[in-house]
Design goal:
The chain has 10 helices and 19 strands. It folds into 2 domains: 184 residues, Immunoglobulin-like (Sandwich), CATH 2.60.40; 295 residues, Alpha-Beta Barrel (TIM Barrel). It is of the alpha/beta class. The two termini are 39 Å apart. The strands form 3 sheets. It has an 8-stranded parallel beta barrel, surrounded by 5 helices.
């Protein structure tokens, strides 16, 4: 859904009148001091810093019973492939073993390092020695489930860093095939164990929609009728598609492609879809790869892809001019020259938030309220999935950080659309807040910032995983605050 410039300007300016009409805007505040902010709402061509979406680089850890040390991956997004084969008796020649404290320590320090740096991971475990895809050595199901419980306890300590856990554990490369263990009952049990033991903020990713139906106990032929309500057990189940565009059914991913993609279009609004591009099936004659993906990825809400697989596809995209529907990338906007299909795909994986325009109360007396309206457009394929919060930061001689998402509203305060997970792909959302100034604020001119993050931490870096808006104006992003500039307000010590 797209709205035009004029209608949004009217909404931004009329909102304070609406609040006043219904008694939300108190008598000490001045509607006259509202103004539209001078924001450049043009989209940047840069990818931005956001680590919980985009192209990933594979990383590998092979855990031994003892002698493990933390692994340090210095990149924004890693698919972390972890080999647990040494804990299976069929491989070690001794007995099945629980995961040792040394392993859990090394794993925890690995995730802790990533979290401190503000990096993200998708994790997959397998009993495939060296992830060679030759032979697999799974222990019995009861041992696998105990391993899941142990590993989940570590993931819970650094869950902000984990954008998803791929079901894994059985099959070649952890892809749930090529082993006698890969039965519907076993796969369903492993999926359900992940759902039970992982933190609710961590998506559980299945390999195919059929596997999801095995876990939930529904008919694959009726999957398009399946809806998971927020808070439901399977609400966060997503999919990793390692056969993306390999064949007409994505190399066995789908039984009935249209019906299952229809289900994904709704389900992945609140979970994660990722994987590997392995072919160009489905592309019409004369159609570019990017033009096909523009349609497909918006439907499946694709968040991440492997950057290290099928170089030929990405090489083609890097040489192909983008010729899809976005005028900014095909050069018709008059702002940028034609971009490549690769540029378009790279920038639109996952969410991509742009502050299009805003209005704000420009002058506020002490102990009064100020109003901020911000139009935010998500032009990415997907949504913000993991729960993040909105903060307003007032930066002057002193800095004040005001939580919005979890705010306990006082009399006369008003907050609307403060949940970033509801800023839907392909839509514009008006975030509004009419809130009290901090009681201890001193008169000054303040820069006003919007911060979207898990929380506000005092340590340096991006350990709170702040969201950088994709605005072309480089002055919007404050690297130190991890926040997006909106406008200035003046706090005065007299009534307006």
């Amino acid at each position: 859904m797209r709205t035009n410039f004029l209608s949004n300007i009217v909404l931004l300016l009329v909102m304070p009148l609406f609040l006043a009409r219904f008694g939300i805007l108190d008598s000490n505040s001045s509607i006259r001091s509202m103004s539209v902010c001078e924001i450049d709402g043009t989209e940047s061509m840069d990818e931005g810093i956001n680590t919980d979406r985009g192209f990933y680089t594979p990383g590998f850890i092979r855990f031994s019973v003892t002698g493990n040390v933390p692994a340090y991956f210095d990149r924004k997004l890693t698919q972390l492939r972890i080999d647990l084969s040494n804990f299976s008796g069929s491989y070690n020649g001794e007995k099945d073993k629980l995961i040792t404290g040394n392993v859990l320590y090394a794993f925890e320090k690995t995730l802790g390092y990533l979290e401190k740096k503000g990096y993200s991971v998708v994790i997959r475990f397998a009993y495939d020695p060296w992830y060679s895809g030759q032979e697999v050595y799974e222990p019995p199901l009861d041992i696998i489930k105990k391993h899941q419980e142990q590993l989940a306890s570590v993931i819970a300590l650094h869950q902000n860093a984990v954008i998803g856990v791929e079901t894994g554990l059985i099959g070649k490369w952890g892809e749930l095939h090529g082993t006698v263990m890969a039965t519907p009952d076993n796969i369903a049990a492993i999926i359900n164990q992940w759902v039970d033991v992982l933190p609710e903020t961590v998506p559980v990713l299945v390999r195919t929609p059929s596997q999801y139906t095995w876990a939930k106990g529904i008919n694959i032929n009726e999957i398009d009728l399946d809806i998971n309500e927020e808070g439901g057990r399977y609400y966060r189940v997503g999919l990793y598609n390692d056969g993306y565009m390999g064949t007409w059914n994505d190399t066995g991913t789908y039984v009935d492609r249209e019906k299952e993609v229809s289900w994904l279009s709704e389900q992945i609004r609140h979970s994660v879809f990722g994987g590997e591009l392995i072919g160009t099936a489905g592309i019409a004659e004369g159609e570019s790869i990017a033009a096909f993906l523009e349609k497909e990825a918006f439907r499946t809400h694709t968040t991440y892809l492997n950057s290290q697989w099928m170089y030929s596809i990405y090489a083609t995209m890097q040489s192909e001019a983008y010729n899809g529907k976005d005028p900014l990338y095909n050069g018709k906007s008059g702002i940028y020259p034609v971009q490549t299909g690769y540029d378009y795909l790279k920038n639109h994986l996952g969410y991509r938030l742009i502050l299009r325009r805003a209005s704000i109360t420009k002058k506020v007396p002490l102990y009064n309220k100020f109003l901020l309206n911000a139009e935010i457009e998500n032009v990415g394929f997907a949504n913000v999935v993991k729960p993040k919060k909105v903060f307003i930061i007032l930066k002057g001689e002193n800095t004040y950080k005001i939580p919005i998402t979890d705010r306990m509203l006082t009399i006369g305060e008003y907050v609307s659309n403060a949940d970033p997970t509801k800023w839907e792909s392909g839509t514009k959302t008006i975030f509004s807040c009419f809130i009290d100034l901090p009681d201890n604020i001193v008169p000054d001119t303040y820069k006003v910032y919007l911060k979207v993050a898990y929380d506000i931490k005092d340590d340096s870096g991006y350990s709170d995983y702040p969201v950088q808006f994709a605005n072309a104006d480089e002055n919007i992003w404050d690297n130190e605050l991890g926040a997006n500039y909106v406008d200035d307000i003046k706090v005065v010590d007299y009534n307006i």
